[in-house]
Design a protein that fits this description.
heterotrimer, A: alpha+beta, Beta Polymerase, domain 2, 3 helices, elongated, C: alpha+beta, Cytochrome-c3 Hydrogenase, chain B, three-stranded antiparallel beta sheet, 15 helices, 47% helix
Chain lengths: 176, 357, 371
């Protein structure tokens, strides 16, 4: 059983500057921030190393940090420019009974994160949902298409904070 | 029999033949099929701890009339690109195949549709028409689900005709005749003269035959159950997998025809199995007519016993349907080819040996 | 010279008697053997997570009901525990006991639906009606408590909507007495029926390693031999006070991890839930159920991922709050969403009839998958 500080030390020794920092303020949970394009190597190490054994990915969720600049675009809608989108990974080990949370942040304009689908197959649909809802592209995913919205939805990424419903979808009026 | 009686009554051959052939159809089988629809719903409901149709008539007894009225006035929706000729022909073939079997089944000592010597072989042959009807229905519906259902149905019916025929041949060896009327007459007397208990000839053969006949009865009951596509063998109409199989695209009267044909089929095989093994229309206890010296009471009693045995087996089939889950296609096929057919062959050999010695 | 065979694409469309909800399965079959299965979801997407961002925390509770509509109490339970952990609220003892009783009764009701519909898919129509008859009794219990049969809005942040009905304890004891022999009847009718075993044993075998990698949880994971139940391994509420076993698949009648095992886990779990309800009913203390409900729910800024054991698996709520009355982001880790991924793997090489058997044994609810 390891707590997040020890895991942070182990990862920092192995990966150096890819691991950015450990945020830990109680009462909420602490998380380790990792660089977005190296997350798959970190996860592979976390899964296979003796003593860590994070064989199970509990949750993978995207989130819109909404920390960019709020400006008004041509239709007088408020959009956000700059800032980051983040992805949280919650990992767990069933035999050693410990958990850890990882976070990656990528920029809003061109979000790209390495996919961990090869490591935990559970990430397959979670990553598709993050792509569908936020537009985060997971590199090396075998089938990154929309999952909950219709496959040819052009109106944007619904869970972003500055999302506006499009007027029409295939001739049907969207806000009714 | 009744043909002679009608001929002597009216003096005209045409009327006699006409009434004789249509009588069972309109007076008995069609009403039975209609009653069976309601019976199935009530039996199923009571087995499932609920009540079934209760609103139409007293305790839902007039439900069938409501169903018929509904189906008669329903719109006959068809998909656009079906094969029109075969689509219309298929229910008729299935219906004809099921109802034509009643021509060779003795309803009582005085009535039989047509007293042909081929009897049972004719019945098995004519119920094979059903396969053609099902295949036509599945193909003409232009629907992948229907095609799957039709192919499964064809494979199932054709495979299960083999154990049926083998057992029939076994019975023919013992009774020496293919005519169901003669077979029923041979099992006259009390219930220990029935074929399932070894037949009317006392002796060592009877004791040896009894267990074999019990097994033969089980095999033929199961294989005829598979021929009419009832659970546990109802793959072709497996509701939860392929929606409704070969009759997915049928609505209104055509669907009603499929339904009526299924219930008539159920009664037909109940009647055949009871005629082969349980004495047909014979009473197990002797006749009231004999007791009271009223000659014309006997055919009526025999008709009553015939109906009772038929309905009993129909109820057993319904009971099986609502209790057991269904087989998968390959398990069904292996059940037929690896178990039923070898056992039927062995039975044939053993019974042959016993009748020869 | 071999016969040329072609592959056929069969669509088990959104409306179908045995896809449990609106799920579209695209099967590529060759004869009767499945080459691949692609599930298409999204037909029931109701934008739960977007709604949450404009509502206050207590207003979200009726929405959490509607995700897994067959296990509403457990959904609310999970959400309320997450918010209470974020805010650091302690609830009175009576509230804890009542919540556990409701959650376990809901677990029994949900498993009854799963078992009944599974039997109906396989072709046995009668157990379906027996299961629903027993479920009616549980729904009557819920109805006298909170007025609703399916979607309750009963478990609130910091307490409950209102206290138990005075007759509830007596009626629950009667239910427990009536249900045990019915469970035995169900076993005789369906579980140990040879045709049912032939249909479901050795079909859709899920090895333990694959299950952990795919993130499978709940009875499906335990049927593969992994002893992992959140009520014991990551305890929440007062589950550590009750004495109950965790059924783990042993592979009787087939191999470990096949459909029959998954089905049998649910039967055994119903018995264990009945034990928990019995013990809780006898130990329930008095108290006030609404004393700890806060006037305004304003959690501190931060995030939390908290999970409960739903009848279908691990239901997780990832709540990110920025200190205001509306959450910034709520992500629901629905168990059926994650369990569905392994379905394509399990079906390869089996027949069309097995697709229905495997889908029923994974036990999904489309409301959860699509949210």
């Amino acid at each position: 059983m390891k707590n997040p500080e020890e895991i942070f030390e182990i990862l920092k020794d192995k990966f150096g500057e890819v691991i950015i920092e450990l945020f830990s303020d109680k009462p909420t949970e602490s998380f380790i921030s990792v660089a977005p394009l190296e997350i798959d190597k970190v996860c592979l190490y976390l899964r296979d190393k003796e003593g860590l054994n994070f064989k199970s990915l509990m949750n993978l969720s995207g989130i819109d940090d909404a920390n960019g600049e709020k400006i008004k675009d041509e239709n007088d809608n408020e959009i956000i420019q700059g800032g980051t989108l983040s992805v949280f990974y919650h990992l767990e080990s069933i035999d050693l009974k410990h958990k850890v949370t990882l976070k990656v942040s990528t920029d809003r304009e061109n979000p790209e994160v390495a996919s961990v689908e090869e490591i935990w197959r559970a990430a397959d649909w979670h990553e598709r949902e993050a792509y569908d809802m936020f537009g985060i592209k997971f590199l090396n995913h075998h089938n990154l298409i929309r999952i909950l919205m219709p496959y040819d939805w052009e109106g944007g990424y619904p869970l972003r904070k500055d999302y506006q419903n499009p007027e029409f979808y295939k001739g049907m009026k969207v806000p009714y | 029999m009744i043909y002679d009686w009608l001929y002597s009554l009216t003096g005209s051959e045409m009327i006699a033949i006409g009434v004789q052939s249509l009588l069972p159809l309109y007076l008995f089988i069609l009403p039975f099929a209609l009653v069976a629809v309601l019976l199935e719903r009530k039996v199923a409901a009571h087995m499932q701890d609920r009540l079934g149709p209760m609103r139409v008539g007293y305790h839902g007894l007039l439900q069938t009339i409501a169903d018929i009225l509904k189906l008669l006035q329903k719109e006959d929706t068809v998909a656009a690109d079906i094969d029109k000729k075969f689509f219309d022909l298929s229910p008729l073939l299935v219906f004809a195949g099921s109802y034509a079997a009643f021509a060779a089944i003795p309803f009582s000592g005085a009535f039989m549709g047509s007293n042909i010597d081929l009897g049972i072989i004719y019945i098995v042959a004519v119920t094979g028409l059903v396969v053609a009807g099902i295949l036509m229905g599945g193909w003409a519906s232009n629907n992948k689900y229907s095609l799957l259902g039709a192919m499964r149905a064809a494979a199932q019916i054709i495979s299960f005709e083999i154990p049926t025929l083998l057992i029939v041949v076994t019975v023919i060896m013992i009774t020496g005749t293919m005519n169901l009327y003669t077979m029923s007459e041979w099992q006259t007397g009390y219930f220990w003269n029935w074929l399932i208990l070894g037949g009317p000839d006392f002796g060592i053969a009877k004791i040896l035959l009894t267990p074999l006949m019990l097994m033969a009865f089980l095999i033929i009951f199961l294989s005829t159950l598979a021929e009419v596509n009832r659970t546990p063998f109802d793959i072709p109409e497996a509701e939860s997998e392929i929606v409704a199989g070969y009759h997915t695209e049928y609505s209104g009267m055509k669907f009603a025809i499929f339904f009526l044909a299924e219930y008539a089929n159920m009664f037909a095989i109940s009647a055949v199995v009871s005629a082969l093994f349980f004495g047909g229309y014979q009473s197990p206890f002797g006749y009231l007519g004999n007791l009271l010296e009223i000659g014309w009471l006997i055919p009526i009693e025999q008709f009553f016993w015939f109906t009772a045995k038929g309905v009993f087996f129909v109820l057993v089939q319904m009971w099986l349907r609502w209790t057991l889950p269904r087989f998968r296609v390959d398990q069904l096929m292996s059940f037929c080819w690896k178990y039923l057919i070898p056992i039927s062959f062995v039975l044939l050999l053993l019974v042959g040996l016993i009748t020869v010695l | 010279m071999a016969l040329k065979t072609e592959e056929m694409v069969l669509n088990m469309g959104p409306q179908h008697p045995s896809t449990h909800g609106v799920l579209r399965l695209e099967l590529v079959i060759e004869g009767e053997i499945i080459k691949s299965v692609t599930p298409h979801i999204g037909y029931l997407h109701r934008c739960f997570e977007k709604h949450c961002e404009v509502m206050t925390y207590p207003q979200i509770i009726p929405y959490t009901d509607r995700m897994d509509y067959l296990a509403s109490m457990c959904n609310e339970f999970g959400y309320v525990i997450a918010v209470e952990r974020l805010m650091g609220i302690e609830v009175p003892e009576r509230v804890e006991y009542i919540r556990v009783i409701m959650a376990e009764l809901q677990r029994i009701a949900s498993h009854l639906v799963a078992i009944g519909t599974y039997g109906a898919d396989i072709g046995a129509f009668t157990p379906f009606l027996f299961c629903f008859r027993d479920r009616e009794k549980i729904l009557n219990l819920f109805e006298i408590t909170c007025g609703a049969r399916l979607l309750y809005n009963y478990i609130w942040i910091g307490g409950l909507m209102h206290d138990l009905h005075p007759d509830f304890i007596r009626l629950t004891k009667e239910f427990i007495k009536e249900f045990r022999p019915n469970l035995k009847e169900l076993n005789d009718l369906l579980t140990f029926n040879q045709i049912f075993i032939d249909r479901t044993a050795n079909v859709g075998i899920l090895p333990a390693e694959t299950a952990i990698n795919y993130g499978i949880t709940g009875p499906n994971l335990r049927a593969s031999g992994v002893n992992w139940d959140l009520r014991i391994n990551d305890p929440y509420s007062i589950y550590d006070r009750f004495d109950f076993k965790i059924p783990v698949g042993k592979g009787e009648n087939g191999t470990v991890g096949d459909c029959w095992n998954r089905y049998y886990m649910r039967i055994l779990e119903m018995e264990e839930s009945l034990k928990i309800v019995e013990q809780a009913i006898n130990q329930i203390p008095d108290g006030d159920v609404s004393s700890a409900i806060p006037k305004r729910v304003k959690p501190p800024a931060g995030q939390i991922y908290s999970r409960v054991e739903n009848p279908r698996g691990e239901l997780g709520y990832f709540i990110v709050s920025d200190g205001s009355v509306n959450p910034t982001r709520i992500k629901v880790r629905a168990p059926s969403f994650v369990n569905m991924v392994v379905f394509g793997e399990l079906c390869k090489g089996h027949m069309v009839a097995d697709v229905v058997a495997i889908l029923g044994s994974i036990d999904i609810v489309l409301g959860e998958i699509d949210r």
